[in-house]
Amino acid sequence: MKRLLTLLIATPVLLLALGGAPAGASGAWAVTYLDPVPPRFESGTSYTLGFWVLQHGTHPFEGSMNPVGLRLTRADGKTLEFKGIGLAEAAHYSASVVVPKGVWRVEGIQGPFQPYAVGTLTVPGALRINPLPPGQADMIAQTEQRYWGDVRPPGFEPGTTTPAAPIPAASSAPVVTVTSSPPPPAPASDGGVPAYTLLLAAAGGAVATWAVLGLPTARRRRPAEDEPDRTQEDTIVISG
């Protein structure tokens, strides 16, 4: 029992002394993504390549990413390493490369993680990027997008919290716009006078005619002096 306890205590100390367990032993891994590269590479020409090193291919590593860069290996065993310089964005680096003629295997140097096989570079010629690991595109699509701003790794599209309004399908039918502006004036008559003026004139004439012919007028009371005195006519005198 005492020997077992000693072994359990000594094992972590031994691992620390050897530099820790390999990153792949605990399932930790990373992916190196290249920013858009020149369409063609020439021998002896300097190029600056941007690249991203993301843990699990989806997010920045929280620990120290050192060393970091790009490694190129030719079929004859010649190896070139180009150190990555950190940029403003998390997990974003750049490296200046000058590559001789040949066919080169390109790898990403990823600090504590195993190197990642980026692709194959032919000089003179182009860089052919390896396809993503199986299921990696789905992992990227589900990744939280809070790590970056407008500058982000290739394939990481900005997330939206509010869906955009659907755009109606194109149609050849004219677009009708309804407004609250007042209706246009009535068309003018043949004589050049607006029709509503004739209507008003006709209405005024009708009112005047009605006032003359059919409108009952109040009887004027004759003055008192014009009325005959019927007092005596209405009085009966009976003599005694």
TrEMBL record:
Biased composition of type Basic and acidic residues is found at 223-233
Bilayer-crossing residues are 193-213
Kindly indicate whether the keyword Transmembrane helix belongs to this entry: yes
Where does the signal sequence lie?
A: 1-25
What are the entry keywords?
Membrane, Signal, Transmembrane, Transmembrane helix
Q: Where is this region: Disordered?
A: 219-240
Q: What is this protein called?
A: Uncharacterized protein
Q: Which organism is it from?
A: Nonomuraea composti
Q: What is the lineage of its organism?
A: Bacteria, Bacillati, Actinomycetota, Actinomycetes, Streptosporangiales
